[in-house]
């Protein structure tokens, strides 16, 4: 790891001022950033630890859904009675991230700001009609992820919280990489009245919605409604873990499992 | 670029001047001489470096020492009683032969203790799931799972009996 200056601001305003320094980086739980630094793949001058800012913490009920502070760790979401009651599928997604020790450190804000193509949370942000609130504005979940490791966040913009709508039914099904536990393919299915949203992570450079699946499930919310449907393999990720064709196949399989789990 | 890091490690307050990039595992091993916490993969996968920070298990190879500034840290050296009596989980690992080479054992025991704190009576499946962040290349896990089950029972037995309401 290259040397850096560590800062631990206690207010959002101080963090916003500190991050303006050239080559400064925000530190959430550090479960991606620290390995990146250890490999010397990045060389920030300053690390701004967001862990001491009360405004970034906590889980609240909001507009019938949930508002989760950016510096809320995966384990807190997984074990929260409030999350289990209001959006249980979100608690179960959080419980499946990484391993126990990673969940004890990693944060939701860090996960979505990093926008790893195989991360779990992006699927929930899109499927659960989330709104990402930053220190500058609100960004619709549908507009937040713009590409592989790319988001709509501007340089120095800080995620404050993520607000999720409460679905009638929802579930997340993931085919995970057994070593890293990242999603080779993960599908989040959420039903809001007649509207169904199907968000796919792991399969492409960034999370995307499977619109044909959504149309079919809006008409008939059963796994069988997806028979014969698949996403185009062209352009999907291909690596040592899974080919593009296999990922395309998994999208349908995971979508069906999610529909069944949603009940 | 150095800073002062202070924390409570195994009940003792410590303070050291370190570089800000110092990892918690390096702080424990190199600055405090607590070499029971191991560095295995150094990529947050194997779990040999697991310690407790404010009661939660974390991978100390993927935590900065400054992130634990002011925290209560427990390492494998802090589990046994002052008179040397092993913690029930340590005793269970010995009794059930939950180790061969022993390199992963400190992390396994720390993860197991954290798991049982949250779930005092875990099933075999819950134990295996709870130890996903710890890799052992010797045992095949079978005896580790047995040890954690026995350790959990011993920990429950070691709790002081509830005082009857008057």
UniProtKB/TrEMBL annotation, chain A:
Domain of life: Bacteria
Keyword Transmembrane helix assigned: no
GO molecular function: FAD binding; oxidoreductase activity
Keywords for this protein: FAD, Flavoprotein, Oxidoreductase
Entries under SMART domains matching the protein: CO_deh_flav_C (SM01092)
Cited Pfam families: FAD_binding_5 (PF00941)
InterPro entries (UniProt xref): CO_DH_flav_C (IPR005107), CO_DH_flav_C_dom_sf (IPR036683), Diverse_Substr_Oxidored (IPR051312), FAD-bd_PCMH (IPR016166), FAD-bd_PCMH-like_sf (IPR036318), FAD-bd_PCMH_sub1 (IPR016167), FAD-bd_PCMH_sub2 (IPR016169), Mopterin_DH_FAD-bd (IPR002346)
This protein's record includes keyword Flavoprotein: yes
Domain (FAD-binding PCMH-type): residue spans on this chain: 1-169
Protein name: Carbon-monoxide dehydrogenase medium subunit
Organism: Azospirillum oryzae
UniProtKB/TrEMBL annotation, chain B:
Keywords: 2Fe-2S, Iron, Iron-sulfur, Metal-binding, Oxidoreductase
Lineage top rank: taxon: Bacteria
All residue ranges annotated as the 2Fe-2S ferredoxin-type domain in the record: 3-79
UniProt keyword annotation of Oxidoreductase present: yes
InterPro entries with a match to the protein in the record: 2Fe-2S-bd (IPR002888), 2Fe-2S-bd_dom_sf (IPR036884), 2Fe-2S_ferredoxin-like_sf (IPR036010), 2Fe-2S_ferredoxin-type (IPR001041), Beta-grasp_dom_sf (IPR012675), Diverse_Oxidoreductases (IPR051452)
GO molecular function: 2 iron, 2 sulfur cluster binding; metal ion binding; oxidoreductase activity
Record bears the keyword rRNA-binding: no
PANTHER family: OXIDOREDUCTASE WITH IRON-SULFUR SUBUNIT
Protein name listed in UniProt: Carbon-monoxide dehydrogenase small subunit
Source organism of the structure: Azospirillum oryzae
């Amino acid at each position: 790891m290259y040397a850096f200056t560590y800062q631990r601001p206690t207010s959002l305003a101080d963090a916003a001022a500190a991050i303006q320094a050239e080559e400064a980086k925000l530190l959430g739980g550090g479960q991606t950033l620290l390995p990146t630094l250890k490999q010397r793949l990045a060389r920030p001058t300053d690390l701004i630890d967001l862990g001491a800012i009360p405004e970034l913490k906590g889980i609240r009920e909001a507009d019938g859904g949930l508002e989760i502070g950016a510096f809320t760790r995966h384990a807190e979401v997984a074990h929260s009675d409030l999350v289990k009651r209001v959006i249980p599928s979100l608690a179960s997604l959080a419980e499946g991230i990484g391993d126990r020790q990673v969940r004890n450190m990693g944060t939701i804000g860090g996960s979505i700001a990093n926008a790893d193509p195989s991360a779990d949370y992006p699927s929930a942000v899109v499927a659960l009609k989330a709104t990402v609130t930053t220190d500058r504005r609100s960004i619709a979940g549908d507009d937040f992820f713009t590409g592989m490791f790319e988001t709509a966040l501007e340089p120095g913009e800080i995620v404050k919280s993520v607000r999720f709508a409460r679905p009638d039914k929802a579930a997340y099904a993931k085919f995970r990489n057994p070593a890293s536990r990242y999603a080779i393919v993960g599908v989040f299915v959420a039903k809001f009245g007649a509207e169904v949203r199907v968000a796919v992570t792991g399969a492409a450079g960034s999370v995307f919605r499977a619109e044909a699946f959504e149309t079919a499930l809006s008409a008939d919310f059963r796994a069988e409604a997806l028979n014969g449907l698949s996403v185009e393999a062209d352009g999907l990720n291909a690596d040592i873990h899974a080919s593009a064709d296999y990922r395309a196949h998994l999208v349908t399989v995971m979508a069906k499992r999610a529909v069944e789990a949603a009940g | 670029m150095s800073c002062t890091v202070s924390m409570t490690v195994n009940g003792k307050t410590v303070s050291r001047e370190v570089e800000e990039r110092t990892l918690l595992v390096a702080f424990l091993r190199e600055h405090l001489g607590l070499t029971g916490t191991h560095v295995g993969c150094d990529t947050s996968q194997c779990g040999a470096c697991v310690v407790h920070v404010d009661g939660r298990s974390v991978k100390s190879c993927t935590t900065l020492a400054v992130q634990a500034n002011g925290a209560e840290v427990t390492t494998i050296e802090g589990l046994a009683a002052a008179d040397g009596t092993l913690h029930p989980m340590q005793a269970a690992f010995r009794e059930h032969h939950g180790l061969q080479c022993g390199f992963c054992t400190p992390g396994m025991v720390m993860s197991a203790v954290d798991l049982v704190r949250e779930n005092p009576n875990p099933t075999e499946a819950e134990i295996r799931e709870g130890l996903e962040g710890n890799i052992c290349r010797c045992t095949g896990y079978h005896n580790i799972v047995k040890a954690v089950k026995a350790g959990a029972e011993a920990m429950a037995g070691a709790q002081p009996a509830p005082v009857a309401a008057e």
